[in-house]
Amino acid sequence: MEKSLIYGGNYEGPSYQITTSVNNLQRLPRFGHDSDFTAVFSPYQDEQIDYAAGLISLFVFLLIIFIFWTVVIIVFKVMGPANAGFLSGHHFVVPDPADDEKDIYKRPLRVRVVFLVATALLMTFAFLFVVMGLTNVNNAATTMGKSLKTTDELLQNAELIASNLEKVGDKSGEIRDAAVAELDNLCPANPDIGDLVGMDIMGIADQAKSDLTMLENFISDGLEALNENLSLVRGFTSSADKATKAIVFWGWEMKLLVAGLFILPSFLAVGVGLVMLDVDVEPYQKALTYFFMPLFGMTIIACYIVCCAILPVSATSADACSGGGTVSGGPDDTVLTVYRNLLGDDTGLIFQFVGFYTQQCNPEYYPFDFLSTYLNDLDKAVDSTDTALSALEDNQELLESQCDRNFDRVLDIVEDMNDNLRLLRQQADLSLDLVKCENINQLYVNTVHEAGCTYSVDAMAWIFASTLVISVCGLIMIMLRSAYYPVEYLEIGDSWVTKPVPTKSESQDSAESTDPVVVRKVAHSAVTVSTAATPPMDIPQSVKVSQVRDDEFEMGHDIAEI
Question: For the whole prediction, is pTM greater than 0.85?
Answer without folding.
Answer: no
